[in-house]
Amino acid sequence: VYGTFFPEFFGSTYLGSVRTVGVTIMVFSSAIGPVLSGYFIDLGYLIDHQFKFFAAFSTFASLLFLIINLSIKLPEHAE
């Protein structure tokens, strides 16, 4: 899915730039996750509370991006 999504959605013109930003965000997110979880543990939050928080945050972010995606009219084919 990863290899076909970017060219299909963004086109091939700026494929390298789009993938670079995507990979950078993914690496940063995977690096900040353990730090954030450790900080919550230091504050005294149990792991099940952290799971609920991260699930709620992911759901909120997904809904926000869905609303944004529905409100923006994209071109038929981005080539």
Name a few traits of the molecule.
3 helices, single chain, 79 residues, mainly alpha, 80% helix
Would you kindly provide a written description of the structure presented here, covering whatever features stand out?
There is one protein chain. This protein has 79 residues and is mostly helical. The protein has one domain. Helices cover 80% and strands 0% of the residues. The protein has 3 helices and no strands. The protein has helices at residues 2-10, 15-43, 47-71. The longest helix is centred in the middle third of the chain and has 29 residues, at 15-43. It is elongated and about 50 Å long. The protein starts with a helix and ends in an 8-residue tail after the last helix. 0% of the residues are buried. The model has no long low-confidence stretch (mean pLDDT 87).
The counted number of beta strands is 0
For the terminal residues, how far apart are their CA atoms? 19 Å
Oligomer: single chain
Strand content: under 5%
Q: What is the chain-wise order of helices and strands?
A: HHH
Query: What is the share of helical residues?
Result: over 70%
Rough outline: elongated
Mean pLDDT: 87
Spatial extent as radius of gyration? 17 Å
Output the number of helix runs.
Answer: 3
Our count of domains comes out at 1
Q: Main beta sheet, described?
A: none
Q: What are the low-pLDDT stretches, counting only 5+ consecutive residues below 50?
A: none
**Class of secondary structure makeup:** mainly alpha
